[in-house]
Amino acid sequence: MGWIRRRRSVSRASDGPDMAIDLKAVKAHFGEFAGSRRGVEAYIEPATRYTATTVVLIAHDGEWTRRAVGTPAEGYRLAEALRIPAYDVQRTGYPQAMRDWTSRMRGVTHDDDGGV
To answer: Which residues pair with 67 in a beta bridge?
Structure first.
């Protein structure tokens, strides 16, 4: 009996670098996050083979949230609209507060992005 290989079809519309992005929902989520926390900064993450460009918002205490935005330019526009500083994570890295917060939250249930 031979092995049958099955290929799963990958929908580019829901995941990956060509994924459909609901910027209205991203803006609403980021607006709520930035408006309800102190010292929020944006960190622009580059696209990869598997993900679109993403933005991580990080509050003063390290609490964070991540959403896909499509392009770095869109990430910087979102940060400007929120009136928060934005950084290229490849140049700055992530703040220690984010790593500390993530370590403290291990084992606590979060939504699908690992943050809030």
So the answer is: 55
Residue carrying structure tokens 């084992």: 107
Identify the bridge partners of residue 55 per DSSP, sorted by sequence position. Answer: 44, 67
pLDDT tens, the chain, 116 aa long: 455 555 444 444 445 666 778 999 999 999 999 999 999 999 999 999 888 999 999 999 999 999 999 999 999 999 999 999 999 999 999 999 999 999 999 876 555 555 55
20 Rama sector, left if φ>0, alpha if ψ -120 to 50, beta otherwise: beta
Give the 3-state secondary structure of the chain. CCCCCCCCCCCCCCCCCCCCCCHHHHHHHHHHHHHCCCCCEEEEECCCCCCCEEEEEECCCCCEEEEEEECHHHHHHHHHHHCCCEEEHHHHCCCHHHHHHHHHHCCCCCCCCCCC
pTM summary value:
0.77
